[in-house]
Design brief:
Chains: A mainly alpha, B alpha+beta, C mainly alpha
CATH topology of chain C: 3 helical TM bundles of succinate and fumarate reductases
Distance between the termini of chain B: 62 Å
Number of domains of chain C: 1
Distance between the termini of chain C: 78 Å
Strand order of the largest sheet of chain C: 1-2
Helix content of chain B: 25-40%
Radius of gyration of chain C: 22 Å
Number of domains of chain B: 2
Strand order of the largest sheet of chain B: 2-1-5-3-4
Largest sheet of chain B: 5 strands, mixed
Oligomer: heterotrimer
CATH architecture of chain C: Up-down Bundle
Largest interface: A-C, 51 and 52 residues
CATH class of the largest domain in chain B: Mainly Alpha
CATH superfamily of chain C: Fumarate reductase/succinate dehydrogenase, transmembrane subunit
Number of helices of chain B: 9
Order of helices and strands of chain B: EEHEEEEEHHHHHHHH
Number of strands of chain C: 2
CATH architecture of the largest domain in chain B: Orthogonal Bundle
Radius of gyration of chain B: 21 Å
């Protein structure tokens, strides 16, 4: 038995789980308020565009997107196994690639802001 | 001392005659304060001597009488009949092959337990003519994990062990952690080869069922997460800062 | 005496065997909503980058019934993830001060308090009220 390299995928999962635990509910609340017609000041185009223009904000947003998508991917992978899907390598490839693709997309869009 | 009628629905399996297990109903009368183990003993003594099961201490310290009672992993000596109003379904501990009746094949667990080296590998030899010194704080660090009685209820509760037979499992991992946390021990690197492998802590998805059913409150789930975090920190230190010592 | 151990097959019915397994599955499924909302966020970034008109269209989509339902579900599931995560943190990160370990409630409580403070701060800074 050799020491596994699982920490490569587990580290970001644990970080992502923590970030989403602290941040996601309030962020969902912000977009929910917008959905219900009370658009928070920050979600007005000018303010959000100005905020997202700052390199620090881009870094934070990209980092949050990556960790959120990665922890989602990892949990999905485990859940598939729990539900009896045995093709773990295939599932892992799909979910992690998806997380990386989503992150890449967010980086591309952030660069355009 | 009042008696009440008790209905036991017990899973039977005779490897010499049966192709698969089947349930058998026993109707007996039991004193109010009896546990499931008392009822099984009563059945074996007065109704059906062929019923096979493991038991020993009858006081929840030997870990022999683990079985599924109404689908939950329990120690038969610690499961009170009065808590079960209807028919009580008794089956062998889940996720283990059935040897006969309520007796399971526990070879897998015994092998995995041995693999994690659940004994002191001293950091340094004991002082001449003296004992190892350990502060109360150092003892507290691992005391909780010493309480394991190897009853394997945690293996029956753990869905990952049921799905992934190679998984080392809660009790073995908690016991490895017990020694890793012991200030007298220096064997963590050796144990990491087993518990930080794929079949070690990484198959755990923190369902937490193991800690739920543990009769001794060992909290193997907590132990496993602590090993995961430590293993992760070690891994990143080793690969990102290879010049640092462990 | 011949041995012929019987191996009971493992089907997905284990999930329904006890409420703790159902709750575990709910916790795991929260990732679908958290991930889905994050992908919506990425789409929002795209709209933001394309200009005011695109962003307005995004805000408009947010007001659709489907969006509102998904938001409510996501808020519920994301909160469930947070609650379960913070309650499990003391098990993974026990803190020994002196001889005794800090009670689980203290560690979890500190996380919940930080979560509340952070959330209010963000709502305030975002001009939600």
């Amino acid at each position: 038995m050799a020491i596994s390299n699982k920490p490569i995928v587990w580290g970001p999962f644990a970080a992502g789980g923590t970030i989403t635990a602290f941040l996601t509910p309030v962020l969902v609340l912000l977009t929910l308020l917008a959905a219900l017609g009370h658009v928070p000041d920050l979600l007005a185009y000018d303010r959000l565009h100005a905020l997202a223009g700052h390199w620090l904000a881009k870094l934070a947003i990209a980092g949050t997107v990556f960790l959120s998508l990665w922890s989602t991917a990892h949990r999905l992978r485990i859940t598939c196994y729990d539900l009896g899907v045995r093709a773990d390598t295939l599932v892992a490839t799909i979910v992690y690639a998806g997380a990386l693709a989503g992150t890449a997309a967010s980086v591309v869009y952030l660069m355009r802001i | 001392m009042s008696e009440r009628p008790v209905e036991l629905e017990v899973l039977r399996y005779n490897p010499e005659t049966d192709r698969e297990p089947r349930f058998q109903r026993y109707s007996i009368s039991c004193p109010e304060e009896w546990v499931v183990l008392d009822a099984l003993n009563h059945v074996k003594e007065t109704v059906d001597p062929t019923l096979s099961y493991r038991w020993s201490c009858h006081m929840a310290v030997c870990g022999s009488c683990g079985m599924m009672v109404d689908g939950e992993p329990k120690l038969a000596c610690k499961t009170f009949l009065r808590d079960y109003p209807g028919v009580i379904r008794v089956e062998p501990l889940a996720h283990f092959p059935i040897e006969r009746d309520l007796v399971t094949v526990i070879d897998d667990f015994m092998a995995k337990l041995a693999r994690v080296k659940p004994y002191l590998i001293p950091k340094e030899p004991a002082p001449q003519d003296a004992e190892y010194r350990q502060t109360p704080a150092e003892l507290k660090k691992f005391k909780q994990f010493t309480l394991c009685i190897n009853c394997m209820l945690c293996y029956a509760a753990c869905p990952e062990y049921g799905l992934i037979p190679e998984y080392i499992g809660p009790a073995a991992l908690a016991l490895a952690h017990r020694y890793n946390q012991d200030s007298r021990d220096g064997g963590r690197a050796i144990r990491q080869e087993e518990i930080a492998a794929y079949e070690g802590v990484w198959e755990c998805s923190f369902v937490g069922a193991c800690s739920d059913v543990c009769p001794e409150h060992v909290d193997p789930a907590g132990a496993i997460q602590q090993v995961k975090i430590k293993s992760t920190v070690d891994w990143y230190k080793k690969h990102l800062m290879p010049w640092t010592k462990e | 005496m011949s041995r012929k151990p019987y191996v009971r097959p493992m089907t997905s019915e284990w999930i329904l065997r006890h409420s703790r397994y159902v709750r575990y599955m709910l916790r795991e499924f929260s990732c679908l909503f958290i991930g889905g909302w994050t992908l919506m966020l990425v789409w929002g970034l795209k709209q933001l980058a394309e200009g005011p008109a695109a962003w307005a269209a995004f805000l408009q989509w947010l007001t659709s019934p489907a969006s509102i339902v998904l938001h409510l579900l996501t808020l519920g599931f994301a909160s469930y993830h947070s609650v379960t995560w913070f309650n499990l943190t003391p098990k993974a990160l026990p803190l020994q001060i002196g001889e005794e370990f800090l009670p689980d409630g203290a560690i979890a409580g500190a996380h919940f308090a930080a979560w509340a403070v952070l959330s209010f701060a963000i709502l305030f800074l975002a001009g939600a009220f």
